[in-house]
Hints:
The chain is mainly β and 113 residues long. It has no helices and nine strands.
Amino acid sequence: MAHPSQSIPKNFAFVDGAVTVNADIFAVHVLVAADANMTVRAAGIFEQIGVNAGNGTHIGEDGETLGASHSAGFYERLSTVDTTLPCVAGNIIYGDFKRVTGTAGDKFICYLK
């Protein structure tokens, strides 16, 4: 959840359709989710991957980009990699987003830091 100092938005960006917002975003309010997904770039998104399934999109235990040889487990995605998140109209999704992209028919309000 966002830090209380950021709970009152000072600025926002409106995503209407296939638009991309590149900014420091702490929350996304989903007004209309045409395909029930949004594409984001964010820090702190973890994903479970199998043994040696690394493809350069995750951070390894040593803090470096995950190589081809590793154990199965939860690894953080690089914040420069697009991630598809499920979304439902009416929800507010909190995080440390750097980019939010809509598709045709989507309507999101991005609350900026």
